[in-house]
# Entry
Amino acid sequence: MEDAEKLLLIEEYHDRLGTQIPIRDVHVSLHGIAENQLAMGIPQVGSALDRLMAQGLDRHQALHAISTVIMEYLYGKLSDGADENAYIRQIEGLTADKWWALSEPGKPRPRVIGHRGRRRKKRR
Ligand SMILES: [Zn+2]
# Structure
């Protein structure tokens, strides 16, 4: 899939959600970068997505969480130079709680009930 087509799908997805996103182009681009890293098979990014979803985030929230680390990396690239190893370390240390504390400071993170993650135990 071409990048332009991918970005259009990401925009359409947000339209269907009906959410207002402040800086639309940046938001969609960050999603695109995260999706590309997953498609490239960067193992730490794939693991982060699995981990965040197992911790109760839906896929969209997990991509937002990954995007916060991407943003920090890009900011580093614009200023004093980014460290790719630091990016990987941050992705590896990313948790749903860390992301929630950044995006909704002071608010308790809602617990997802009945999340159907990969690590769900079998019911008897
Ligand atoms: Zn989004």
Q: What stands out?
A: The chain has a mean pLDDT of 85. The helical segments are 3-17, 24-39, 43-54, 59-78, 84-93, 96-103. The longest helix spans residues 59-78.
